[in-house]
Amino acid sequence: MMRFQRFPTAPARLVLAWRAAALVAAALIIGVLLALSGRNVFELAELVLKSTIGSRFGLEDLALFMTPLILTGSAVTVTSRIGLWNIGAEGQFYLGAIGAAGVGLYMPGSPLLVLPAMAIVAMLCGVAWIAVPTLARAWAGVNEIITTLLLNFVAGLLTYWLATGPWRDRVTGALASTGRIHVAIPEMWGVVHWGFPVALLIACGLAAIMTWTSWGYEVRISGANPGAARYAGMPMRARIIAVMLLSGALAALAGMFEVAGTVHRLQGGMADNFGYLGIVVAVLARRSCLAVIPAALLMALILDAGIVLQTQQLAATVVLAITGLVLLLIAIGDELAHYRPVAPAIRPATSSSRPEKKVTA
What we know:
It is found in: Cell membrane. By secondary structure, the protein is mainly alpha-helical.
């Protein structure tokens, strides 16, 4: 009888096929549930399509969502290549936003000088924020998941304190927000700023580094087989430190782009879970730096569709449940892609080892 066997790797075509099937199944389930609640499913579907990929406004929103998702997704992906998980991209995002806002608020000069300074300071803040979990992991073997996760809450509270205290906007009196920074990333298409193509180039550059450089090769080997990497004399500790610090810098750069390109000020809650969603993007990308781009696009579509549905009086909890259902079915599809039918082995017939007795008359 035919049986199914799980293989350690899944071909890309099977993964794409199962994900497409998961999206179709999610659409059918969501459609049935909305129809049972009295909604016009076809009108909602038409509205979602027009508001996301069917209009210039929707495409601009997708690009704005994708910019931080690509960077935070890349931040988590590079650490996963060496067998680690940076769960603190949310906190590093906040620290990058704090550093960028500090420069944008208090450093005079032209945008040609201030914007690079904002990016450099933001990345240094992200590197400093992840430095303690990195050194603890590299030198003492402390689990980086716990340390990076807990620092997220500290970073969020620090942002609220700055936005409501020392850097509070005393002109307009806005709550939990600083004043508007005096420089901004130039716009390239509508409200889409130049941070979007920079994020795309960063993702492509990371993919090239991981694929074609000796440093990327050592990172991949260190993550796939640490024992073999140590036997080959690869500097495991140095590679862990370098990858973790690079991850913190990428997540912090996402915070800088959000401050200088989208929000134009520091405010509480501005991360909008982009750091946590970067983990989802990295999982969808299956440890591929280049696949972060389509994974971020999918996540941006889900987020944008959720906003559209909320404008149609769907509760935020319902939208969250829909998002969870889509991601759950995609995860199930990714797992099913590892299973393939295998024909049972046919055992050749063997003759008896006992000698035949001769019958004599």
